[in-house]
Amino acid sequence: MLGFISARQAGLDDPVRLRRAESTRRVLSLELNKDRDVERIHGSGVNTLDIEPVEGRYMLSGGSDGVIVLYDLENLSRKPSYTCKALCSVGRSHPNVHRYSVETVQWYPHDTGMFTSSSFDKTLKIWDTNTLQPAEIFHFEGTVYSHHMSPVATKHCLIAVGTKSPKVQLCDLKSGSCSHILQGHRQEVLAVSWSSRHEYILATASADSRVKLWDVRRASGCLSTLDQHNGEKSKSSSEAASTAHNGRVNGLCYTNDGLHLLTVGTDDRMRLWNSSTGENTLVNYGKVCNESRKGLKFTVSYGCNPEFAFVPYGSTIAVYTIFTGELITMLRGHYSTVNCCVLQPNFQELYSGSKDCNILAWIPALRDPVPDDISEKSPPQQHLNPAYEDAWSSSDDEG
């Protein structure tokens, strides 16, 4: 560590290198925090989590009971053991609560004054955080599985919405209406994700085994359909050649630089794609257990070397290196199926939500303390050179 700091001060090393090394160390030492609890509010499974990107302090959760909770993650008490308190919630008694399961919550990317939620009750709601009242409600014909706002957009305020319909809906926050639809999928759209690099590029995943990339400015819309065989015809059938997975595709996540896209499907596979060429990179992650019939929320690390993916895997969370496919560890602590996980990138802390109604905090382990016996091994005071001994008199000796 001192070598890193010295090289950085001397201008011999990239200033980011120290941060990257520490971020990587923290991810590799993630463990269930025994001193930090997240207040239990949900009476049924937790489906979705999101931490606001402005301060990284406030977290939203959405549950199968339709309830939405807002948590403060900061330890204001400064005590070693504390509970992340719920600041407020949209509970069952709230007049505008979702009637059915909340599938996705997301903060407005540039301001904590607004957040969004979508539900099996066929609605997408835009909430004013201060009043906890919906500023806008979008209604759809079918169940809403997923929605997403671009983290980098400056020229549009579009929310992509995946529903039971094969058509991808785009809702415009400025006009308060559904601006247009993207047609191409054959079954329900289970996951949507805007590129973290290009504000007009959108990825969508469907139960039809396909993942499509769209440029929402184009009239034709679809840029490409990802092909797990990279254009080589499958021996079993030509139909399988244009699919991303051999089952329902229910999870999408761009890497933070936007250069790659991760997908997960019910064929128990995770795949890494080059987002500009659409090529399957053929990284082998082994079996990635995925029994979810709806959207699966997973996430990736930020500022590490190598980068990692955190993927719900039954009642555990599997941690993989993104570009080599190595399974690093399995985080165990939940009693039932994990539905979602989200990373707090400032401190490399992970939060996960499960069917067991709990939200767990996974915190980097502290560095090993210096053993006590080191001080015992130091030479006794009388063996020191007299020149180094304290010759000053104390106040007790005076008088």
From TrEMBL:
Pathway assignment: Protein modification; protein ubiquitination
A cellular-component GO term for this protein: Cul4A-RING E3 ubiquitin ligase complex
High-level lineage: Eukaryota, Metazoa, Chordata, Craniata, Vertebrata
The organism's place on the tree of life at top rank: Eukaryota
Complexes and interactors: Part of the CSA complex (also named DCX(ERCC8) complex), a DCX E3 ubiquitin-protein ligase complex containing ERCC8, RBX1, DDB1 and CUL4A; the CSA complex interacts with RNA polymerase II; upon UV irradiation it interacts with the COP9 signalosome and preferentially with the hyperphosphorylated form of RNA polymerase II. Interacts with ERCC6/CSB (via CIM motif); promoting recruitment to lesion-stalled RNA polymerase II (Pol II). Interacts with KIAA1530/UVSSA. Interacts with a subunit of RNA polymerase II TFIIH.
Region Disordered: start-end pairs: 371-399
Gene that this polypeptide is encoded by: Ercc8
Location, primary (coarse class): nucleus
Keywords, alphabetical: Chromosome, DNA damage, DNA repair, Nucleus, Phosphoprotein, Repeat, Ubl conjugation pathway, WD repeat
Protein name in UniProt: DNA excision repair protein ERCC-8
Pfam families assigned to the protein according to its UniProt record, in alphabetical order: WD40
Source organism per UniProt: Jacana jacana
Gene3D superfamilies per record: YVTN repeat-like/Quinoprotein amine dehydrogenase
PROSITE patterns per UniProt: WD_REPEATS_1, WD_REPEATS_2, WD_REPEATS_REGION
